[in-house]
Amino acid sequence: MKKTLTTTALGLLAAFGLTQAALADIKLGASISATGPAAFLGDPEAKTLEMLVADLNAAGGINGEKIALVLYDDNGDPNKARTFATRLVEDDEVVAIIGGTTTGTSMSILAVAEDAGVPFISLAGAIDIISPVKPHTFKTPHTDRMACQKIFEDMQKQGYTKIGMISGTDGFGASMQAQCKDVVGDYGIEIVADETYDPKDADMTAQLTKIKNAGGVQAVLNPGFGQGPSIVTRNYKQLDIGLPLYQSHGVASDGFIELAGADAAEGVRLPGTALLVADLLAEDDAQRPVVTAYKAAFEAKTGTPVGTFGGYAHDAFLIMTDAIARAGSAEPAAIRDAIEATAGLAGTTGIYTFSPEDHLGLDLSAFRMLEIKGGKWTLVD
């Protein structure tokens, strides 16, 4: 599936300079999982990119040049993502790529982008995407390692020293499980029960029962992604485990609450973005203007609630177009250099400052610890 658009952005991009005569379109590529098992992530990402391209072009483009978006739907298949990335580079001749809804598709795309010397901004969470640093690859979501650290910070504040963990065996779950195990000791916390589940499992009662019966567990963490964490949350409630439950940033959306059920999700904590609590942000919060503008535009355009994952695409587009404007060039090398020089750019996920040593550009302050109360997201800190 391919869409070629000469269409979108929010008013915040209108200041890029619109006085020069239009030249050739700037061809921007994207491979997104708009359908398939990761569609709940990819669909809002694709809609966000389409909206932003249309808005930016309506405002005059970048220095008079319009964006032509070449968008492929990879269905969450890493092999398709690699094929589309190759097509974007060799046939479509794009100057940069946004995409990689999942870790698997991101790894496929970045292999192509690095070989071709084309800047790529991933929308997936695994730390492996940007660590070690790869010259042309950047990403917008926090890493799974950062999510572990934010969760353990909160657990430490609550005085928890022994926890249970139940993790998905997919790429995201396995990566976050490993990262959490690597840093948990820094917070004086011990994992005394450790279970896993397949993403296709329809019931996790057996694993959760083992955790419930393990001695000394004070809280439970589920490094997971997709529908698995919703099932875990429902089973957790059914078993009346009665201990605090933490989820990953991979399910930070209203869709998680809907799938799990507000009653079962009550009290669940996880690290998320400012976008989920836009109305609760302080007036002087540096992210408030961009968060509220994107939320209003997306919800007006689609009639659906804004979510974290569309926000990742918003930030990737913002970073990319800001870099093109500052570079004064649509050459891949110039765009790459300008992305790496980005400093203090407020997005929906955090405030980005990249460097040659850091292609994420976020620190733990970009995460907000959230708790579900009455079916709504609330701020813990």
Fold and architecture overview:
- Residues 26-361 form the Leucine-binding protein domain.
- Pfam families: Peripla_BP_6.
- Keywords: Amino-acid transport, Signal, Transport.
- This is ABC transporter substrate-binding protein.
- 55% of the residues are buried.
- The chain has a six-stranded mixed β-sheet with strand order 1-3-2-4-5-6, with helices on both faces. Strands 8-7-9-10 form a four-stranded parallel β-sheet, with helices on both faces.
- The protein has two domains: 2-142 and 288-364, Response regulator (Rossmann fold, 3-Layer(aba) Sandwich), CATH 3.40.50.2300; 144-278 and 367-379, Response regulator (Rossmann fold, 3-Layer(aba) Sandwich), CATH 3.40.50.2300.
- α2 (78-90) runs parallel beside α3 and α7 (228-238) crosses α8.
- β12 and β13 (351-352) form a beta hairpin.
- The protein has helices spanning 39-58, 78-90, 103-116, 144-158, 171-183, 205-213, 228-238, 254-260, 262-265, 288-302, 308-327, 332-340; strands at 2-5, 26-32, 67-73, 96-99, 120-122, 137-139, 162-168, 190-197, 219-222, 245-247, 269-272, 345-346, 351-352, 368-373, 376-379.
- The protein is an alpha/beta fold.
- Residues 4-23 have low confidence and may be disordered.
- Helix content is 39%, strand content 18%.
